[in-house]
Amino acid sequence: MTDPRIPEFEAIYQCRLVGVVGPGLGRDGFVLRSNRLTAVKFFDHADRFLREHEVYQILKARDIWQVAGHNTPRLLLANQSLRTIEMTLVERPFILDFAGAMRHEEVPDFPPHVIEEHLQRVQDLFGNRWADALRVADVFRQMTGFTLLDIHPGNIAFPD
């Protein structure tokens, strides 16, 4: 990765970013592993950074470290000018990636066909665990007030 924020982050926080976490460049940016055994997410857009940071602040304030038995990363630091969030690494089962989460009042009133397509997509992605994935997302909504719209196995992972 050649993002100029990487060496700036390393200089400010006296660490080394040593490898990519996950599949690489994602919808919101990318995540690198640090030599402190943490993950650092670099956001492409300020609004996505702000939303994920808001959700992490709620998780921290409410002392939520698990949702329906799924581990959540813990916020360690956030840098708005670099659009970075440093968090703990988590093992399966986990729930993560909150940049696309929406407050209840922000969630559009989707027409029935869109909801059906979404449910079919979740079934295709999770197979016989699709209802479990939706339950984890629902518990997250109940605990935080935020609805997860980006539900896939990279964001909600089961132990197996």
Residue-averaged pLDDT: 95
**What is the highest CATH level, the class?**
Alpha Beta
Determine the CATH superfamily: Phosphorylase Kinase, domain 1
Unreliable sequence segments: none
Q: What is the succession of H and E elements?
A: HEEEHEEEEEEHHEE
Shape: globular
* Proportion of residues in extended strands: 15-25%
Q: What class would the helix/strand composition place it in?
A: alpha+beta
The tally of structural domains comes to 1
Strand order of the largest sheet: 1-2-3-7-6
| Fraction of helical residues | 25-40%
CATH topology: Phosphorylase Kinase, domain 1
What is the terminal separation in angstroms? 31 Å
Number of helices: 4
Q: Rg, please?
A: 16 Å
Number of separate strands: 11
Which sheet architecture does the biggest sheet show?
Answer: 5 strands, antiparallel
Model description:
With 160 residues, the chain is α+β, with helices and mostly antiparallel strands. The chain has one domain: Phosphorylase Kinase, domain 1 (2-Layer Sandwich), CATH 3.30.200. It is built from 4 helices and 11 strands; from the N terminus they run H-E-E-E-H-E-E-E-E-E-E-H-H-E-E. The strands form 4 sheets. It has a 5-stranded antiparallel sheet with strand order 1-2-3-7-6. Helix 3 (112-126) packs across helix 4 (130-144). The longest helix has 16 residues, at 46-61. It is globular and about 50 Å long. The model has no long low-confidence stretch (mean pLDDT 95).
